């Protein structure tokens, strides 16, 4: 017999609490000391979850670190509406490998601002004395940095418009414009700058955030750029939790299993990790009390995760789709693909890593393969393959470069790049279309088409993505062989040869 669903709202929290765990703390007494740009599934499964856990376990230490979410893109209006109707509450469901579901209503987000509604309100929230941390999950491409030079791209129309807008908040539309104008106002008011904390999958994400925000500030005034670089803290971090996009089936699951009407729940795996550099200017919550690794140097953890987990995800994505796997767990347990991905981890990624304090890399890799194969998370190869031009250059290309410089093998990394090139042709091995989702879609698709004709290295010649790899004979030999095999024999035969 079906259970009548209860709408998830603050007024209904007691009733909802009879079905699933809910916040036991007084949300009305929580103030938003963290302003977060990019409220999506990952943020709600990760940073917001940790703060919710801290509020539950040590309310007095965390009560000034509630979250104010901010959306700047037109598509964020949907998140605004969903969260507004639910008083910023949502259900987080952990999907264990044995099929067990572990739900909790998360209450750490106490405000949400949609920047197009009121840009001035966003700037003033950032400039408020109570704001201590500005955190970011704006995707790997959201920092507007050139993949080869690492420099901030000043000619982007939105960036140029925000730089010209200056203090006119009503004309701002980017995270750079909002944050820098708020820093200007704080300085004018005698307030210390907040800390800017990146939570995106980028090596040295704090350093990259510093480059981006200081460069944008310099567009307004070179002296302002110097001030941002000298006075604002940008801690590095490594974040990890596999969080697929919420589907209608997930909404139905929460209603069916728990009797909760939640417009936008989040589902994820049970594993979570966060390594965070202890470099904050205006205080921070004691996140180490709830499992965050607060460390002096994040780089070993970053490289471990980016080169083992994230790069392996790319290996699963394109080969998996070409093998007709829609779901990641099927790709990760495919008898040809699974050993290839593990061989990439062992033979190519691991040799580029320094020892990671407190981590056994062999156990970590075993755990990764188990996580990839979790059949209940239902992550998709399409999600892993999206925005590849922002991912491959940051996650896989550095592995190939390090191994080439050391005289080590690169044929597995080259095969992963070749599988992306084959995927980007936009048609699978049965002639069915593949939807390529990428902010550089036109350029990527055009290069993939050219490789079918007179130039088999056309895809690899994009220096913005691959630098000079197209000129490296060892890499191009392995790349061309894998691409030729994919065209002639298909993905499974190619993997069998690679093994």
Nutshell version of this structure?
The protein is of the alpha/beta class. Helices cover 46% and strands 11% of the residues.
Estimated radius of gyration:
23 Å
Given helix and strand content, the structural type is alpha/beta
- CATH overall fold name of the largest domain: Rossmann fold
Residue runs with pLDDT of under 50 for 5 or more positions = none
Number of helices: 23
In the CATH hierarchy, the architecture of the largest domain is 3-Layer(aba) Sandwich
DSSP strand count: 13
Largest sheet: 5 strands, parallel
CATH class of the largest domain: Alpha Beta
Shape designation = globular
Fraction in helix: 40-55%
Determine the N-to-C terminus distance: 51 Å
Task: Give the rounded overall mean pLDDT.
Answer: 97
Strand fraction band? 5-15%
CATH superfamily of the largest domain: NAD(P)-binding Rossmann-like Domain
Whole-number tally of structural domains: 2
The main sheet orders its strands as 6-3-2-7-8
Catalytic activity: D-mannitol 1-phosphate + NAD(+) = beta-D-fructose 6-phosphate + NADH + H(+)
Keywords: NAD, Oxidoreductase
EC number: 1.1.1.17
Protein name: Mannitol-1-phosphate 5-dehydrogenase
């Amino acid at each position: 017999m079906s259970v009548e669903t209860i709408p998830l709202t603050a007024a209904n929290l007691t009733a909802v609490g009879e079905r699933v765990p809910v916040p036991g703390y007084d949300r009305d007494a929580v103030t938003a000391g963290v302003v977060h740009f990019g409220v999506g599934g990952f943020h709600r499964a990760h940073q917001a979850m940790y703060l919710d856990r801290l509020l539950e376990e040590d309310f007095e230490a965390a009560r000034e670190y509630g979250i104010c979410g901010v959306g700047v893109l037109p598509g964020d209006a949907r998140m605004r509406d969903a969260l507004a109707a639910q008083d910023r509450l949502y259900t987080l469901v952990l999907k264990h490998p044995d099929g067990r579901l572990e739900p909790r209503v998360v209450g750490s987000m106490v405000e949400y601002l949609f920047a197009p509604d009121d840009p001035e309100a966003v700037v003033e929230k950032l400039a408020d004395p109570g704001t201590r941390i500005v955190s970011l999950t704006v995707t790997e491409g959201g920092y507007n940095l050139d993949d080869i030079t690492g420099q901030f791209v000043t000619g982007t129309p939105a960036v140029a418009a925000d730089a010209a807008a200056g203090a006119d908040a009503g004309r701002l539309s980017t995270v750079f414009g909002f944050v820098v104008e708020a820093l200007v106002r704080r300085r004018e008011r005698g307030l210390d700058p907040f800390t800017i904390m990146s939570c995106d999958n980028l090596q040295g994400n704090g350093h990259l955030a510093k480059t981006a925000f200081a460069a944008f500030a310099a567009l307004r005034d070179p002296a302002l750029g110097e001030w941002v670089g000298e006075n604002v803290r940008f801690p590095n971090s490594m974040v990890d939790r596999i969080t697929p996009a919420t589907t209608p089936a997930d909404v139905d699951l929460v209603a069916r299993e728990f009797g909760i009407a939640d417009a936008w729940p989040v589902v994820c795996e049970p594993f979570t990790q966060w390594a965070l550099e202890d470099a904050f200017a205006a205080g921070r919550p004691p996140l180490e009390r709830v499992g965050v690794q607060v460390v002096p140097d994040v780089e070993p953890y970053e490289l471990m995760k980016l080169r083992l987990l994230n790069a392996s995800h790319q290996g699963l994505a394109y080969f998996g789709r070409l093998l007709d796997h829609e779901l990641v767990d099927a790709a990760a347990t495919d008898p040809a693909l699974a050993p290839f991905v593990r061989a990439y981890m062992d033979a190519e990624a691991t040799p580029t890593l320094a020892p990671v304090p407190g981590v056994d890399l062999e156990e970590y890799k075993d755990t990764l393969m188990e996580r990839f194969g979790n059949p209940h998370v239902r992550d998709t190869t399409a999600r892993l393959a999206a925005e590849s031009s922002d991912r491959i250059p940051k996650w896989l290309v550095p592995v190939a470069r390090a191994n080439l410089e050391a005289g080590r093998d690169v044929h597995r990394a080259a095969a992963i790049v070749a599988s992306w090139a084959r995927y980007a042709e936009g048609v699978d091995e049965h002639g069915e279309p593949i939807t390529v989702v990428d902010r550089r879609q036109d350029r990527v698709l055009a290069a993939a088409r050219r490789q079918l004709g007179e130039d088999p290295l056309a895809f690899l010649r994009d220096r913005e993505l691959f630098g000079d790899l197209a000129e490296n004979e060892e890499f191009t030999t392995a790349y061309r062989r894998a691409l030729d095999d994919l065209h002639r024999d298909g993905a499974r035969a190619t993997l069998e040869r690679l093994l």
